[in-house]
Each structure stands twice: as structure tokens, then as C-alpha cells.
């Protein structure tokens, strides 16, 4: 029967057998088409051949393994029945393929992202990392966009202070606090560490170690330590750099027991005039920002302004934005010194806990690191920060950019120490694209051969992703390299497509309107001042 009627009643004179056979055949055809369509969809959702799927990354997805790892790394979560996604780690994208979904670092990973400009570094990587951090955050940038899209939301989420260090008025916000880089500086080691941030701005060859750079760093280390011991402000170092004959730093260091360093400075001052002037000129170039009175107001005590405390910040849920423009004389050395000091204090705080880790962890989103946050020791810091609950995410535009700052060996050390690496679109460095292709590896490709005796099959080894395909990655796609796991493919998710899009848009609109109002007020004030002068 078909449709409740006998076949003969529907088609009189037609044999029943052929009609039933045709109906069965049509049904099988429809089922086959359905299965084929489903298989096609599944095929499109498979990870690319040779890349790892969701099972390989189970420690970085929001499943049982990730929850168990989070409870191990964060003792405060041990008794929690339910964990929120941001308890598990820092978001870095969505894994391609079936069973994919969000991917997060663990709280002991140290991450590195290399993506060309305008490929979603800030919108897809930096913004989500800042907003999802469960503890303190330090974030760097040379533009206002990261601050504009996250500062107000972070303040609402945490209910705690947001600090904006902006000596060059990128956000157009007034100064509300100061930070003293000399506070707590009491050793030659710390003096050299601070001096290194200044010299890093002009270093010509990190691998070879230029003579002028080394001696300028030693000179600055002595001057910075002398100023700190004397209770002077940072601007005093700029004053001492103007005169090679000044004996004040020598006397201060000697009085406080740093005789060897004092003698070294005296020997340099008494050496050949050409060498002495060359070292001092190099040091002045490195510390050019110390001669800018606007920048100095942010790093010297100011009446009525609060002083930032890096030690207290490390164990809070506060947020610190460090902004600087690029180029000579910018505040970039101070941004690097500030970020380095915060992470150093975070490590010290972690060492004082029973677990040896910060809980919640401190997240450091170092966007535009090679331009404005050239922390000299960053490659070495990557080897131990994760074990202390200090989770850095360094974002670069290319490997070449990193090598220009840390040298070839330093950049290779940073790349090797990063336990999570995200390689995005726009890699135009052919040797780097080839290196990534080799890291991804080879896979077996079936080869069909037709001959006189029939068809045969064999396999050949091909690159999973040749160098030209690495270079041609589409925007929004990235290769994911995780220690101990086969490479995977990521889909970067911009905040506009995330769950906080409405909040972020509203906050950014408010910040933009306020910045426009401040700019208008300033123009009005300048115009009024000009009218007054003309009237006189």
C-alpha cells in the first residue's frame, strides 16, 4: 500500500511489483543523498590533514582535564564545584574542526603571538586576554584601542582601580598618579636592570654587544643607583649626564659602600676624552626621555598625586595600562621598566606563598612589545614566569622585529621558551615561514597510480603546510603550537563576535565621547589663551 491506498487503486493496470521497487529505490536514493550531504559537512569540519584535533588539545579546552589542571594550579579553586571559563586560563581562539570550541592556555603557560599588522592581534587576542583575566592585569600598547575597549569594562567587572600610565597623552586622560622607578633600588644588579631598559632603545647589535652600549649601560646603572641612594628624583640623572666632570654620583656611591662601582665611574671619567664623551653621548641618547618635563611628571613625585605601589598591585585584581609612542625620546624605556618591575614584584609575591604561585595569576599582555616594551631580560623571564603564576602574552608583528630587539639568539630563546605559540596571517619572512612549515611537519598522502596491470595505491610524505601556505594564511586563521602536542589550526575570534560585544561597544563609545570632549576643552583653552595674548 502507498499512502494508505492499495497500489492497484492508485495506478490501475500497472503491476504492483515494479511500483514498489521504484518507491524503494527512490527512498534509498534520498537516504544516500542525505548521508552524502552529512559526510560533506563533516568533511569540511575536519581538521586539515596532518593537524591535531580537539582530543590532542583536551588540556586546553574547557573540559575535565582543563578543570583539573586549573584546580591544581590555583589552590583557591580546589573546593569549587563549578568553574567559570576564565578560571581555566587565558583565551587564545577557537580550535578548527569537529569538537573544537574555545582554546585557553593553562595558568602555567607562557604565550607568544606573531601576527602581521591589521590581522586581528588586538581585537582577537589582546582584548579577550585582558577582559578574561581573573587577577591583576598589566597591558601595554602604542595606541588607545586596547585601553578604550577594555578599561571601563575591567573596572565594572572587578570593582577595583584602573591605572593608566600615559605620559604622551595617547588616551588624552589627565594624570592621576606617579610611579617612581628609583623606589626600592638599592643594588648594582637592580641599577643595571633599570639601565638596560634605556640602552635597549638604542642598542645596535644585541648579539655582539657594542662597546658604547655596554659602557653607557654601566654609566647609567651607577647614576641611577646614586640617585636612588640619595633620595633624588629621576630627573637628577639627566642633570648628571650633562656634565662629565660631576663628582656627586661618585661621592654618593662611595658613602654608601659601593666603592668598586664608584671607582669604575671615576676611571671612565678620567679616561681619554674621546672615549668619555662617546660613552656619555650614548647614555644621553638612551635616556633622552629624562629631559622631557612632561614625561618626568609621571615618574617623579608630584604633590597631591598618589604613588603607584607595584608590590600591592601584584596581589590585587587591579588593571594597569602602559602606553607610549614609538621613536626616540618616547616613554618606551619607562614602559618597559614599569612592566618589568610589576612582573618582578609578582614573582616575589608568589615566592612568599605556600604554593609558590600567585592565585589568582597576574596576566601581562605585552602588545607592541618590540616597539614600546623592550624588556631586556624577557627571553630569560619566559623560562620561569609561568611557574610563579605570572602569565605573559607577548605580541609581535614578525620574528624579524623580535630579533631586532633581542638579537637572533634572544628571539630564538623567547620562541623556544614560549609553551603556547600563535602564528597568524601575514608572515612574509620566507625563512620563518619555512621554519614554521618544518615545525608543523609532514604527513602521508595517498597516491593513485594507473598502469597496464590496473590501479595501485602508494603513499608519499608531503609537508602538512608548505611555506607558501603559511604565508597565505587567511586573516582570522592561525597555527597553534603547544609544547608536547601536534600543531593545530586556530580560528581567531574578534571581540565583536564574542559574548561581551555589547558591553565593549558601549564602553568604547563612552571613552571616545569623553576623549572628544577633553580635546574640545583643550582647543577652547588654547584659543582663549591666544585671544588674551592678542588683547594684551
Keywords, please?
Rossmann fold; two-stranded parallel sheet; 536 residues; alpha/beta
Give a description of the structure.
This protein is α/β, with parallel strands linked by helices. Among the domains are: 104-174 and 312-427 and 473-493, P-loop containing nucleotide triphosphate hydrolases (Rossmann fold, 3-Layer(aba) Sandwich), CATH 3.40.50.300; 188-291, no CATH class. It has 21 helices and 15 strands. It has helices at 7-10, 16-45, 64-73, 85-88, 121-132, 145-158, 188-199, 211-229, 235-241, 248-255, 259-269, 273-286, 293-299, 310-314, 332-351, 369-372, 378-381, 399-417, 430-440, 467-471, 501-535; strands spanning 91-95, 101-104, 111-114, 137-141, 162-165, 177-178, 306-307, 319-323, 362-366, 390-396, 420-423, 442-451, 454-463, 477-482, 488-491. The strands form three sheets. It has an eleven-stranded mixed beta sheet with strand order 2-1-15-14-11-3-10-9-4-8-5, with helices on both faces. Strands 6-7 form a two-stranded parallel ribbon. A two-stranded antiparallel ribbon has the order 12-13. Helix 5 packs parallel to helix 6, helix 7 (188-199) packs antiparallel against helix 15 (332-351) and helix 8 packs across helix 12 (273-286). It is globular and about 95 Å long. The model is unreliable at 31-47 (pLDDT under 50).
